Amino acid sequence: EELKAEKEPRPDPRPNGRRDDKAEKPRFMFNIADGGFTELHTLWQNEERAAISSGKLNEIWHRRHDYWLLAGIVLHGYARWTDIQNDGAFGVINEPFKGEASKGNFLEMKNKFLARRFKLLEQASVIEEQLRRAAYLNMTQDPSHPAMALNTRFAEVECLAESHQHLSKESLAGNKPANAVLHKVLNQLEELLSDMKADVTRLPATLSRIPPIAARLQMSERSILSRLASKG
């Protein structure tokens, strides 16, 4: 990031011939668009909040460390944790573990954390590539497919509940028309929930007939990983 900042052109001089004393530091940007299919973004959000509020941007693991972990794997190879840790260019990934250095199983604990974290990043990257491939092939989910019925009914329940949430207060206040409408809405919700229960019982058999994601994308997981690992 610092090298990038040095390579960027300096701002134009001010009208009085002076340059700004402090150039704005470029914002760190790194993302994996996994579509919310993993817990990665929830982790990032919680970790960054903790790191920023405490001022410990190097000591608390967050997405910056994930970036350098992936960069180290690209350079040194798959699961070469020791080589990555010993490379000074990736020293930032050692910072969160400095407080645990006195423990007997320090190296084992550190390597296990890196392996677990990389597994999550790898999973999210595979999903990102699957989503990109699906968009490239212009693949869309058929809304009439039985597997989508549950999602549709859930949206109906949510919409019905939110649009009539004021009726309970009106009914308690003695509003008779509101009370009658509330009973109708509750009956509708009961019917929708009953349908959803039936959909859930049919779901395992329906999903088992859907071809695997790799088959639908015409790519194996190995080919997805090879694409992610190849430069350019």
Automatic annotation (TrEMBL):
Signal peptide: none
Domain CHD C-terminal: 58-203
A single GO cellular-component term on record: NuRD complex
A Pfam family per the record: CHDCT2
Domain of life: Eukaryota
Organism the protein comes from: Vireo altiloquus (Black-whiskered vireo)
Region spans: Disordered: 1-25
Keywords assigned by UniProt, alphabetized: Nucleus
GO molecular function: ATP hydrolysis activity; ATP-dependent chromatin remodeler activity; chromatin binding; DNA binding; histone binding
Name of the protein described by the UniProt record: CHD3 protein
